[in-house]
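WARN  no MSA supplied for this record, continuing single-sequence
INFO  ligand: manganese (II) ion
INFO  echoing inputs
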Amino acid sequence: MINAERVFHRLQELGKIGYREGGGVTRHAFTSEDRAAKDLVIKYMKEAGLEVREDAVGNVIGRREGKNPQAPVVLSGSHIDTVCDGGIFDGALGIIGAIEVLQTMNEQKVVTEHPIEVYAFNDEEGSRFSFSMFGSMGVIGRITEEDLAKKDRQGISVAEAMREQGYDPEKFRDAIRSPEELKAFIELHIEQGKVLESKNLSVGIVTGIVNELWMKIRVIGEAGHAGATPMNFRKDALVAAAEMVQVIEREAKKTGTTVATVGRLNVLPGGINIIPGQVEFTLDLRDISQEVSDKVEREIFKEIDRICQERGVRVETEILQRIPPAPCSKGFQLAAKRACEKIGLEYFCLPSGAGHDAMQMVNICPIGMIFVRSKDGISHNPAEWSSKEDCADGVKVLYHVLLETAVPI
Ligand code: GLV
Ligand code: MN
Ligand code: MN
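INFO  complex generated
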């Protein structure tokens, strides 16, 4: 059956790529670390007996043929990139877990009607170019020419970064898959929260994924002399931004379900003796209900308008992405329940607060997700941890769901 040692060894080996002593794992899109991680995943896929290819947007794909090669393909996998100083499980478990399932099927000489493919998606985190899920957006045909022109903080565009790594950005449409050729996308992932731990359960079945609104907010005040400008004559962009950050927290807290985060804040010109003239910060706003998220967004901006008037500053906004909530298919939730019952695992059904490639894939095929318990609920942090046994439980559930979906013969 599933080889827990092999899964855990691969997670740890992959987790060394981009690791920094005193920090965590940093593997951003189209970097040498990203390339090294893809090459290692290609090695695992070959060891598993898969047919490997890479598509035009940098996704690595391993295929296990079905008895009927023309039958719609069952997809699994997750992302190969990480945030800055992240952990070794986020994304990696879904790739290594799916490879393990297919390797086990090969070892057991299982035959399925439908082919199964593992995707190691490129750039899900969006850490480099400030928009996430580039690889899965490429698969569903949502990448635009404007996306290719977006730049990282060094001023390198997506297209330039692609060329540097040997891709031809003009071919991005070659990565598109049509709904007719796909049966499902099933993603295994760590929970990144505390629900399963609090219930003392190793696995969970995901009911749906929250929306994701990312935007940039620029507060424009007036730079001035820190010594010579009396307090009443200032248009301090940072003090205004600080009030806005408080408003964001307050409005999100009111609903009980919304989460809102200001994760990046840049003060200009950034001198000790200069009143901040401009502040740029990001907003990440999520809720399982689009309606609630929209309402919180409206309330936040009503308050931001008030702060602008009171403080004589103004704001400019830029939407980085708006991804609606994604429901998981009832059919795959049931398949995962059957899998847990077969294995003898207790499970819990829960929504995902984190974003996943499945949110893009839902546009072209039904999706399912399986969660594995996270220690202390910590993620996007080097301390991120899931035990070998819990990872193996998740992979076992994935095995049964993929087998049932691909129809054993
Ligand atoms: C990705 O991990 C996200 O939810 O931002
Ligand atoms: Mn993540
Ligand atoms: Mn992830």
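The first helix runs from residue 4 to 14.
INFO  checksum written, moving to next record
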